Amino acid sequence: MSEPEKNDATLPAPKPLKVLIAADTFAPDVNGAARFAERLAAGLVERGHEVHVVAPAASRRHGTWTETHEGERMTVHRLYSWRWYPHDWLRFALPWRSRRNAARILDRVKPDVVHSQSFLVVGRGMTIEAAKRGIRVIATNHLMPENMLEFSLLPKFVQHIAVGLMWKDAKQILSMASAVTTPTRRAADFLEKATGRSDVHAISCGIDASMYTPDFSPRTENRIIFVGRITGEKQIDVLIRAFAQIDSSLDARLEIIGGGDQKRNLEHLAEQLGLADRVTFTGYVTDEQLRAAYARATVLAMPSIAELQSIVTMEAMASALPVVAANAMALPHLVHDGANGYLFTPGDENELAARLTDVLTADAESLRAMKQASLDLIRPHDIQNTLSTFESLYRGEAVTDPVTDVSSRQDGTLGR
């Protein structure tokens, strides 16, 4: 007779891990990679793990101390950093100190696993030094070198050469990782092509949908919202030009939330087009103010051409907003044309204006269907799924990538 199978309830709980997250951008920075690292760290602490974050200092003050993020306390090692003045807020740790800093912190902390958030300065040094010490490395990529070099001040022909060199370096650094992830399958395919790896996992950044309040009450105004960094790759100028084409009888308003180096130029563009009284540049806002902005909006416009996932789009969907997005990179992974909004040809202001008009003029039943579709499509992106998958990767366990690309043709409930 075979030995009776053990009941899962009798098995000891897995031992908590000591996780070191290496990030080139972290709170208080406001961008998708920083927000993901912050939510990941807080979620792991909440699950009982010991978390250390290594990131550039947000000011001249550097050192190691306890910080609170998303309501959870964690140890943060802030590295001496320099301000990059072509960018409106970016600070970076010094590359020539990267490996020395990594070695010092790794030998002190002795983590079970290093989770690198980029193949650049902090993540690069940590990956190399962790691999030397036999420490497991998980690497997540949020970076498109093409976008980063926008702020480099290099001539265009030099940028092209630099992009090739950066991807070559990425291939070398990512080859040291036990597992490589990126937020969507489309981004994973892109990364595999760029680095030669064939095993990149698609793991959503995840979102705590319970933090957002879907509102199905009848709309009282037509308000378009954009949230994100005010930079070139976001193509906000295309959105403003599209907004200028929307029929004035719809009495639409455009709210642009975020900060960045292009803010003054875009304010000037709005004035030139006679839109200054209908376009609001809100600047940076608190999380509570952002949730309120989603609640009062009719539709999110996302014209960006460089999203590896777009946490903003996920937040809007969790708020039951329809989305009109560029058919570029990972946005089609979230926005299903004709279901929870519409896709448009990147850079085509005429098409963007037409698709926004479709949402603004939709009857109550059609609008409700789009709002419900956003909620249905965001459900598989629950942050708890993301945390569980990374825990398995940290422990060296085989994982099946969470299914997050729910097709409206496969899900008969979508849009009802």
TrEMBL record:
List residues of the Glycosyltransferase subfamily 4-like N-terminal domain: 30-209
Q: Which UniProt keywords apply?
A: Glycosyltransferase, Transferase
Give the Glycosyl transferase family domain ranges.
218-373
User: A Pfam family this protein belongs to?
Assistant: Glycos_transf_1
What does the record list as GO biological process? Answer: carbohydrate derivative biosynthetic process
Query: InterPro entries annotated for this entry?
Result: Glyco_trans_1, Glyco_trans_4-like_N, Glycosyltransferase_grp1
Is Transferase a UniProt keyword of this protein?
Answer: yes
A single MF term (Gene Ontology):
glycosyltransferase activity
Task: Report the PANTHER family cross-referenced here.
Answer: SULFOQUINOVOSYL TRANSFERASE SQD2 (PTHR45947)
Please give the name of this protein. Answer: D-inositol 3-phosphate glycosyltransferase
- Native organism is Paramicrobacterium humi
